[in-house]
Every structure is written in C-alpha cells, then in structure tokens.
Here is the input.
Amino acid sequence: MKITLLGAGAIGGLWSCQLVKQGHKLQLWTRKDVKTINLAFQGLNQTETELFTFHCNDKAAVTESDCIVITVKAFQVEQALRDILPFISPETPVVIMHNGMGTQQMVHQRLPNNPIIYATTSQAAFKPHPRQVNHTGLGPTWMGAENSAGKNFDFLAEVFNQALAPCQWHQDIAQPLWHKLAINCAINPLTAKHQCQNGELARSEFNYLLSQICQEVAAVMSAEGYRVTARELKQHVDRVIAATATNFSSMNQDICQQRPTEIDYITGYLIARAKVHAIPVPINTQLWQHIKQLEQDNNDE
Ligand code: KPL
Here is the structure.
C-alpha cells in the first residue's frame, strides 16, 4: 500500500519501520521541510540496528496514498490535519492513533467525508535520540471505525497485524480506547509526578492510590456504558506496570523534557465525561491539577 504517516515519534517510527519491512511504500510528513529522513531501528530484544530512509513531504504522494496514519500526540492532531488536509483525497481512510480520547469531534469536522479509523496500541517504543527508534515492548493494537465510511476498512487491521502483531479490528473502538485511557489515568500522572519508572508504582505505598483512581475511572466507564469493575481495572493496571516496569511513561518523559503533556486528553477527558454524568472524581482531579502545575512551572522556566 501507499501510506503517508504523520508523527514519527517513538510509536510512529516503530510503525513506519514495521510497515516498510512488510513492503509498503511509506512516506513521512514532517514539520521540518526535508526531503528524506533516516531512522535507525532496533527490534525487540535485538542488539543490531537496521537503517531506513524515508521520503518526506511529497504532496502528490499524500493525494495518491491509500491510507493516512496520524501518530502525533492528541493535542497536535488538529494542527497536523490542518497541514495535510488540502492534499488528502476525500475517499482516503485516515487512521488516528494516540494516547487519550477527545479528538473525535474535531476530526469529524475537519474530515466530514473520509473514512475515519481510530487505533490504540500497547506496543512500547523509545527514541533515545531523534534518529533512533527502539521497540521495547509487545502489546495488542486495536483498530475500529469512527464513522460509517470507516467500517469498510476493517482489512487495515490485518495490514497492521502483518506488520506488527497482534492487531485486531474492534466493532466498538471506544471500548479499547477507554481501557487504554484507564491505564494511562493510573500510570502516566503518577510517574510524571514522582519522576519514576512505571515499575516503581508496584510499591505498596501506591496501591491504595491506584485503587482509588481505578474506582473513579470504573464509575465513569460504567456510566458511559462500558461495564467494568474497579478490581478488573486495577488488575489490568498492575499487569501493565509489571510488563513495562523499566519504561518511563510518555508523560514522565514529557515533563522531564519540558514538553506539553497529554493530560487534558487522558485525565482531562475522564473529568469532562465525569462531569456529564455528575460523578465525583476528586483523586483524578488532584492529579490533573498537579500535572497542569508542573507544565506551567516548566513553561515559566
Ligand atoms: O501508554 C503508556 C505511556 O507511557 O503513555 C504506558 C502504557 C503507560 C506505557 O508506558
């Protein structure tokens, strides 16, 4: 397939290399005006790196793309779409993959005709420097239609599955998106606040706090129609903490490197939905305030 990918961060870089290895013709769309980008890629549990050269920013290639993949952060999706919109054909499917929720409405407005597919992944990747991507953990990827036109593109899950398994199509993509949101509500703000690796959260002192976060998320998820218990969410969070023990979460890295975080699309989205259902979420609200303060402090420096 001809693919254009926006957002070659850690996850975008990982998918770019895996899709090219599968024989797809993939170009990168970048903010910098460059013609090519080299990426060194280190596969999971491998010591050697492979070098990939990607063509970039070819407007005609965007128009000819069979699929557009957007892997920028949630708060960058609007700008990314604005940049590329004039070149996207109205029938081209657009796959959007980011942590958090809450970009759907804006995406519908900007792409009223295109098939829209949302994706969420638990694959882990790390960029030790701008031109190197390391695959650091395996996890499932889910894809699903966000509008009726998107329903015809369930085969894309198999395309992504061939590139990096497991990837499956979900009839109600909001369900895996909510489950990933629960994981991110629990792990990301705490690892950013305490400047620690994910594995530190397995210490007993975090147990009660994690359970309270899960309690609040479970209440909002249930009100949204996704029946889940706080206990189930906490067990899932504990499993992800163990599986990603040596990772620094994306929010930890964003705060550390004085970048904006996805807090408004993770905990902020939970708080917004809680408000709609009149459900109190005081613990998540405190964490949201704390991260907003850290972002502000970084800005003031
Ligand atoms: O998605 C993640 C992130 O860092 O954003 C987790 C699952 C917490 C892994 O680090």
Summary: Residues 99, 124, 183-184, 187-188, 198, 240, 244, 247, 249-250 surround ketopantoate (CB under 6 Å).
